[in-house]
Amino acid sequence: MPDLPAPDPRWHPIATDWYLSLQESGQAAFYQPSDWAMARYAAELMSRGLAADKPPNGQYVAALNSVMASLLTTEGDRRRARIELERKKTGPTLAPVKPLDAYRDLASG
Questions:
Q1: C-alpha pair distances (Å), 3 with each of 28, 70, 78
Q2: How far apart are CA 74 and CA 79, in angstroms?
Q3: Each residue's pLDDT tens digit, 65-85
Q4: d(CA 58, CA 79)
């Protein structure tokens, strides 16, 4: 995993927590530098939306959800990409990642 920039101190705490959680998630084993750049972009969008005086509109929420889905941040996103994360029984370390054949084919272009 590349050295990642620290979260922007101006980000909303929820956006910071989300960004930091990606670094500990199993799918992070697949991330390339461009994925981490997209994660920073998503955290920035999230932070701006959470800090706004009015609630975000549906189009904004849909766009943010799309960016987050492209990073495979939920179990549903990973299932659609046919990625299964195996949980270790002990300790808080990263779960081993078991890519499925379809994902390997997709990733290799």
A1: 13, 21, 24
A2: 9
A3: 888 888 877 777 677 766 666
A4: 25
